[in-house]
TrEMBL record:
The keyword Transmembrane helix applies. This is Penicillin-binding protein 2. GO terms for molecular function: penicillin binding; peptidoglycan L,D-transpeptidase activity; serine-type D-Ala-D-Ala carboxypeptidase activity. GO terms for biological process: cell wall organization; peptidoglycan biosynthetic process; proteolysis; regulation of cell shape. Residues 157-324 form the Penicillin-binding protein dimerisation domain. Its main location: membrane. PANTHER family: PEPTIDOGLYCAN D,D-TRANSPEPTIDASE, PEPTIDOGLYCAN D,D-TRANSPEPTIDASE MRDA. The gene is mrdA. SUPFAM superfamilies: beta-lactamase/transpeptidase-like, Penicillin binding protein dimerisation domain. It comes from the Bacteria. InterPro entries: Beta-lactam/transpept, Beta-lactam/transpept-like, PBP_dimer, PBP_dimer_sf, PCN-bd_Tpept, Penicillin-binding_protein_2. It is found in: Cell membrane; Membrane. The lineage of its organism: Bacteria, Bacteria division TA06. It is an enzyme of class 3 (hydrolase).
């Protein structure tokens, strides 16, 4: 049995002889044992009530450091380690453990750490078990979904938009399949490198692709298109280099197609990629980044019906994201096409309108059925090719469109507001007859070519002499209506215009229709200041000049209400919407109301408009037809920025009108010389196939 060398109570080293056994433990002078100097002790007798044990080695050192804040635990661990080890170790912290333990206490000490270690081990395994239970039970759905995402790829199948059809079923807009290049941003790696690689293939600048990829990375988990309607050569190249282009894929998607090009561009409109602003408000309706949405015209107004419902397919992929094949355990959601909308437009008449304005730079044609409000033709020139927007218009092409002085993006039918010119004489005559300012046979001062009011002379285009109201309309005498304007005043002229439908929207089912302007006394006071404008403005308003502004659609609707004997209909373009399964989802209703005019007044106005076209002195004689009786009114609108605008509005057949049509030719001169013959040919062409012989 080997005795342990002791230190005294003060901790100083006691020196003396040492040997294999100490017979006087309290006086032992055996030097402290060091490894290599003596045989390895196998047993320890703690004779001193304050034994000192010194430990060394990596494991006890760690334990000592870990428990050094607790003196008792530190002492226990150091002594137990020495008692159970084959080698005595020096304490790593070089401190002395002086604990008054006896023999029985040592045995208790040897049992205490076992309980502690067992307890700690039990707590650790209990925590691990609880965590495993949480992951396996409560977190099952989440982690199963994460695991499925690694092997299942959800692919959206794009739904084609509904078709837009004419009144006789001819396709005006539909969708065709096209190839697109898309990316999944989190898989693409270095965006700059990818941009340089794809630039020559997609025929896009590196900078443009960098911008697109940087924008795409803001939504790393959403598939986004970087090129639409690419050629089969591009598709082949991408497929050949698929392994070198992680995150890049080829998709098939429906591309909008407009067979009539610019002939219907303003009416039908176009589609474009959804903007951030619209996405914020429409995301709840299923719209996603990169979706196409109607931007203008009918595409925008009837977006609800035209947009289809996207489908979903599930594809199994490997660890690198490459597609293996369909995933059989998930049900495929089939994409549903949008609804078809049927228009009231006559495609033949629309094409004739395009041809009628082919020799003029700017103008428009608008026609409707006065009995129902069905729009038969709506053409605005110049236009644009809506197919450019279907695949994403280039920056250069867009800048060319918006910077053109001819304003090709502007719909002159529903947004451009022109002074109505002499057409407004119909309104002035209505107000005069209603207020009895003038009667059927009333004559005013003769027309000598001008009318002096105050210190200003207001001119007329000719010398007409003394006239009554019907010949004054037929010959479009300005002097006659100047005198009515003075008698009526601004407020009554404005009131008559508003009653007939000027100054407010017609209700056309296209967005952003203009309401025009019918100026009142209040408007002049607000605009120029009280007392700072001349009363002579009433003379200009009486002949439709000055600040009075009307859209061609408004003018056509007002004249149509006179053509029908006082029934005013809301013009509409879409007659019905049919779902892809054949169900009728929408049908337009005829909305009409009676104009507050006496039948006798309406008959005088109709007679005058018939004379405009058919009497020898009428200003619209060039609109005359040998087959049908056409009535109408010409207008030559003063233009402060160039040549006068030429206008003509007419209806036919006279006794049972089925078409009312207006032609506007900008900067073309006299209404009777330019617009009237164009309108006459269009009306005759429309009536010939379906109402031949009707008068």
């Amino acid at each position: 049995m080997v005795r342990l060398c002791q230190r005294d109570f003060s901790g100083s080293l006691l020196t003396g002889a040492h040997g294999p056994e100490c017979t006087h433990p309290h006086q032992c002078r055996i030097p402290y044992w060091q490894p290599g100097n003596h045989p390895v002790p196998r047993e320890i007798h703690l004779a001193d009530p304050y034994p000192t044990i010194r430990l060394s080695g990596r494991i006890p050192a760690i334990l000592c450091v870990f428990f050094r804040r607790s003196q008792q635990l530190h002492s226990i661990l150091c002594q137990v380690w020495c008692a159970r080890s084959d080698i005595y170790f020096g304490c790593w912290s070089s401190h002395l453990l002086r604990t008054p333990f006896g023999q029985s206490q040592v045995e208790s000490v040897l049992k205490t750490p076992s309980r502690i270690l067992i307890g700690l081990t039990g707590i650790i395994f209990a925590l691990l078990g609880l965590r495993a239970f949480q992951l396996q039970v409560f977190g099952y759905s989440r982690y199963f979904e994460l695991a499925e995402r690694n092997r299942v790829k959800m692919v959206s199948t794009h739904a084609p938009r509904g078709r837009i059809l004419s009144r006789d079923g001819e396709v005006l807009a539909d969708s065709r399949p096209g190839y697109s290049i898309s990316i999944l941003p989190y898989q693409i790696g270095n965006a700059d490198t990818l941009a340089r690689v794809l630039s020559p293939v997609l025929n896009k600048s590196v900078q443009a692709l960098k911008v697109k990829l940087a924008e795409a990375k803001k939504r790393p988990l959403i598939t986004q298109r970087i090129a639409r309607d690419v050629s089969i050569e591009v598709v082949s190249w991408v497929e050949e280099h698929k392994l070198d282009l992680p995150g890049v894929a080829v998709e098939v998607e429906p591309i909008r197609r407009y067979p009539f090009g610019d002939a219907l561009c303003h009416l039908i409109g176009y589609v474009g990629e959804i903007s951030q602003k619209k996405l914020k408000s429409l995301s709840e309706r299923g719209y996603r980044y990169g979706d196409m949405i109607g931007e203008t015209g009918l595409e925008a107004h009837y977006e609800y019906y035209l947009r289809g419902q996207e489908g979903v397919e599930f594809v199994e992929v490997d660890a690198r994201g490459r597609e293996i094949g369909p995933f059989p355990d998930r049900k495929v959601v089939v994409a549903e096409p949008g609804s078809d909308i049927h228009l009231t437009i006559d495609p033949r008449l629309q094409q004739l309108a395009v041809e009628a304005l082919s020799n003029y730079e700017r103008g428009c044609v608008f026609g409707m059925d006065p009995r129902s409000g069905e729009v038969l033709v709506s053409y605005s020139k110049p236009g644009f090719d809506p197919n450019l927007f279907a695949v994403g218009i280039s920056k250069e092409a867009w800048e060319t469109l918006i910077s053109s002085p001819a304003s090709p993006m502007w719909d002159r039918v529903s947004k451009s507001a022109y002074p109505p010119g002499s057409i407004y004489k119909i309104v002035t005559a209505t107000a005069a007859l209603e207020t009895r300012t003038a009667g059927r046979w009333t004559r005013f001062a003769p027309c000598t070519g001008s009318f002096k009011y105050g210190d200003r002379a207001f001119g007329c285009w000719s010398k007409h002499g003394r006239l009554t109201i019907v010949p004054a309309i037929v010959q479009s005498c300005d002097v006659f209506f100047y005198q009515i304007g003075v008698a009526l005043g601004i407020e009554r002229l404005a009131e008559a215009g508003l009653d007939l439908g000027f100054g407010r929207k017609t209700g056309l089912d296209i967005p952003d229709e203009s309401s025009g302007l019918v100026p009142t006394r209040k408007w002049y006071n607000d605009r120029f200041g009280r007392g700072k404008w001349s009363k002579g403005v009433a003379l200009n308003l009486a002949i439709g000049q000055g600040e009075m502004l009307c859209t061609p659609a408004q003018i056509c609707r007002v004249i149509a209400s006179i053509a029908t004997g006082g029934v005013r209909c809301r013009p509409y373009i879409v007659s019905k919407a049919i779902g892809h399964r054949g169900a009728e989802l929408y049908r337009a209703e005829v909305e009409d109301q009676r104009v507050a005019l006496k039948d006798s007044i309406i008959q005088i106005l109709r007679e005058a408009m018939y004379g405009v076209v058919n009497d020898p002195g009428g200003t619209g004689g060039l609109a005359r037809s040998s087959q049908f009786k056409i009535a109408g009114k010409t207008a030559t609108v003063e233009n402060p920025f160039g040549e006068d605008h030429s206008l003509f509005v007419g209806f036919a057949p006279f006794n049972s009108p089925i078409i009312c049509l207006i032609v506007v030719v900008e900067n073309a001169g006299h209404g009777g010389s330019v617009a009237a013959p164009l309108a006459g040919r269009l009306i005759e062409a429309y009536l010939s196939p379906e109402a031949k012989g009707a008068t």
